[in-house]
Write a structure and sequence with these properties.
This protein is mostly helical. The protein has a single domain, classed as Orthogonal Bundle (MetI-like fold).
Length: 225
Amino acid sequence: MHSFSDYFYVFVERSADIFDALWIHALISGAAILLGCLVAIPLGIFLSKTSYKWIQSIVFTITNIFQTIPSLAMLAIFIPLIGIGLQPAIIALFLYSLMPILRNTYAAFESIDHGIIESAKGMGYSPLQRMIQIEVPLAMPYIMSGIRLTAVYIINWATLAALIGAGGLGQLIIGGMGVNDKPLILAAAIIAMVLALVVDFLFGRLEKVFVKRESSEQKIMQMEE
């Protein structure tokens, strides 16, 4: 029977293990989210620009399929292909990150007022200049919203990566379950929750920065018109 103080003392007694697990958890989550951004954002931009609707349909169908695969099944699929450890965990979480970032990026560029693009053309902006100076800044609040949502999901799902030997906070939860160490289980769960909340807060602040920037740029474009 654990006393009430045990649930607090575990943070001190197992601080080194908790810190190591937190670092690995953040590494797995961060790598998956970064890879998701590097692939999904350019792909979303491409899909918003292409006139071939069948390409859009194929890409969204494939990414939707990834979302429908249960997380445990996704991790299990990579064991015979890649093995166990960090690599299959990152790849599996990366595949989960694609859909929300891709969908938000595509929707963001689709929602840009065509009149703003035409005004930029009239001012002599090249396609690359329009993309970098006009379209991307206008789309960033929506893209950041997708990244923010993805980050919270990935941090939570990353606890399952321990099942294939990737470590992280899930390893502490599984270890605590094995020896009925409830304080350790609760501590790891709390740390994972706090990590998700902190990342969500930071991305939320960054999203507000882009929203303010978008409003300012729209005002400038209206004045130049």
